Amino acid sequence: MSTAAPGVSPAHVLVVGGGGRENALAWALNRSTGVRQVWVSPGNGGTQDLEGCRQLSIAESDHDGLLAACREHGIELVVVGPEAPLAAGLADKLRAAGIPVFGPGADGAQLEASKQWAKALMVEAGVPTAGYWKANSREEALAALETQGQPLVVKADGLAAGKGVTVAETIEEARSAIEEIFAGRFGSEASLVLEERTHGPEVSVFALTDGERMVLLPPAQDHKRIGEGDTGPNTGGMGAYAPAPLLNAAGLEQVRQLVLEPTLAALNARGIRYRGVIYAGLMLTEQGPSVIEFNCRFGDPECETLMPLLGPELAAVLLACANGTLDQAPALSIAPFCSACVIAAAQGYPGEIRKGDAIESSLQPSSDLQLFHAGTQRQADGRCLTSGGRVLAVVAQADSFDNAFERAYTGLAQVQFEGMTFRRDIGHQVRSR
Hints:
This protein has twelve helices and 24 strands. The chain starts with 11 loop residues before the first strand and ends in a 17-residue tail after the last strand. The radius of gyration is 21 Å and the shape is globular. The strands form seven sheets. Strands 3-2-1-4-5 form a five-stranded parallel beta sheet, with helices on both faces. A five-stranded antiparallel beta sheet has the order 12-15-18-23-20. The protein has four domains: 12-104, Rossmann fold; 132-195, 2-Layer Sandwich (Dna Ligase, domain 1), CATH 3.30.1490.20; 199-328, 2-Layer Sandwich (D-amino Acid Aminotransferase, Chain A, domain 1), CATH 3.30.470; 338-416, Glycinamide Ribonucleotide Synthetase, Chain A, domain 4 (Alpha-Beta Complex). By secondary structure, the protein is of the alpha+beta class.
């Protein structure tokens, strides 16, 4: 059981996961007031070198191993980064042992783990979202597509590592996406959601919640496509910026009232006390905000972009969310700066990627410039090698987006590995140069 009193920071924190998001979370929690030790499992080449952090080699799927580590190291707060262990019930297991967790149980994680479940909840809550049809067989899906007679958005029902959505431009493209899902690309238990297409700019909104109350973070906008000019296939995200001017304070409050509060109320009505982050992926249509999807974890690279803006109260706020005492937490301070993030990816991403290349960096992190690792591994001889599609994130803060992106790209120029690719137009919506 946590020994930290309400409103107090946890002294020992465990971050579960091994991506850029978890590197950023560990870095931010390490800067939080009262935190003495941050553990990361399984981590990556960057978390291994993070001063004040210690790395464990326990897989995020090894729930028994993580529970044993929590007991061994006196962990007072667990922050779960990825969606898969949440959907698999890691938070439930740890909570049952008296360990506070920032992250929903398996029931709440259905917000992301099942598109059908989430759409039904939105309709139940009156949350604005596109019209949809669910299908549990190939024939049912093709019949719905035929009836509509127009291209639809095709979404695999379950977790698909960000690759389960096709925004079809033609009926034939939608038909191909349906065939692919029911051919088992995302698992044998195939089902899907078909959605009407909506139009408008996209924005990400994050709410830290204890199941009743919430703290909203600055809105962010990421860049999904691999190619400049927003071309090519979708990726996990090639860069981001915050706060996104698309949503001012009044717009963010509208999202709270129309989307987030009704969603929490609907979860509670189902007996689900959701403690963690709700990530609302929104499209800003002419009729107002419309929910594209919910996620039960921080976005990546939005997390890397936002963490440098958050104050030293972060650990206390996350613990309060985990304990259901957000009303007793200190106010979370947010720096009034622009934050810019650019991702360096491996050759071939988002397809077959090249791995094992040595990373060379002369970048010196500072108070307004960060280097977060994602797909990297530290070798016994000290070298850091590429091991994933998205390899590194360079993040910078400044008084304007022009200056923030200039600083981020200058930092990125100090990092090299064979086959490194990145977009040069991240933040084009808010840059004048």
